[in-house]
């Protein structure tokens, strides 16, 4: 189904913000879906999340004209991401832009993002910025940004294990 969501921040096709003890499991957004925001914390599924996300996906075009933390699945999260993916296009004028997640402080496992990603600083095919472990995950597609640009992550302070990145990187 076609979904068009427009917001000014904390914007997602499923929810702008998810807090508390909520399970995000087996949720799928696909078809011709567009999520557009004039602010930060914008994702194809969820804008900002404190919950774990498992076996969920978004096939979307995510665009933010300003603000940080923009991702194909979730803009910013403190919950883990496992067995999930995002595909499509993620475009942001801000920082922390990723094919799967813009900014995360929790682990990413068994997830992938075949996306075209364009951002400013800290732009990555899978994650723009991550401070946790990334395991058995991959990204494939062109990534373009200014500073701290990578096929997998734009910036990471966490460990990276069993991962793959492919596609041209410009930055």
Brief characterization of the structure:
The protein is an all-beta fold and 171 residues long. Helices cover 0% and strands 60% of the residues.
What does this entry look like structurally?
- This protein is mainly beta.
- Helices cover 0% and strands 60% of the residues.
- The protein is built from no helices and 26 strands.
- The chain has strands at 3-7, 11-12, 15-18, 24-25, 28-37, 42-43, 46-49, 53-54, 57-64, 70-71, 74-77, 81-82, 85-92, 97-98, 101-104, 108-109, 112-113, 115-118, 121-124, 127-130, 134-140, 143-144, 147-150, 153-156, 160-166, 169-170.
- The strands form 4 sheets. Strands 1-5-9-13-18-22-26 form a 7-stranded parallel beta sheet, with no helix packed on it. Strands 4, 8, 12, 16, 17, 21 and 25 form a 7-stranded parallel beta sheet that branches. It has a 6-stranded parallel beta sheet with strand order 2-6-10-14-19-23, with no helix packed on it.
- The termini are far apart.
- 58% of the residues are buried.
* Chain-averaged pLDDT: 94
Strands ordered across the widest β-sheet = 1-5-9-13-18-22-26
How big is the Rg?
A: 13 Å
Number of helices: 0
Number of strands: 26
Give the DSSP E fraction (strand runs of 2 or more residues).
Answer: over 45%
Distance between the termini: 35 Å
Oligomeric state of the chains in view = single chain
Reading the helices and strands in chain order gives: EEEEEEEEEEEEEEEEEEEEEEEEEE
| Percent helix | under 10%
Q: What would you call the shape? A: globular
Q: What does the largest sheet look like?
A: 7 strands, parallel
Q: Uncertain regions: pLDDT < 50 for 5+ in a row?
A: none
Derived structural class: mainly beta
């Amino acid at each position: 189904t076609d979904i068009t969501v427009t917001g000014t921040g904390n914007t997602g096709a499923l929810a702008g913000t998810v807090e508390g003890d909520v399970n995000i499991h087996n949720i799928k957004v696909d078809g011709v879906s567009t999520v557009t925001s004039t602010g930060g914390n914008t994702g194809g599924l969820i804008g900002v999340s404190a919950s774990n996300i498992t076996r969920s996906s978004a096939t979307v075009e995510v665009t933010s004209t300003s603000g940080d933390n923009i991702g194909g699945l979730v803009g910013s999260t403190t919950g883990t991401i496992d067995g999930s993916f995002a595909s499509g296009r993620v475009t942001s004028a801000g920082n922390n832009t990723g094919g799967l997640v813009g900014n995360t402080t929790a682990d990413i496992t068994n997830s992938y993002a075949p996306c075209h990603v364009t951002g400013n600083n800290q732009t990555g095919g899978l994650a723009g910025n991550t401070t946790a472990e990334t395991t058995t995950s991959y990204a494939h597609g062109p990534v373009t940004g200014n500073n701290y640009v990578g096929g997998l992550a734009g910036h990471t302070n966490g460990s990276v294990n069993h991962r793959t990145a492919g596609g041209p990187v410009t930055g």
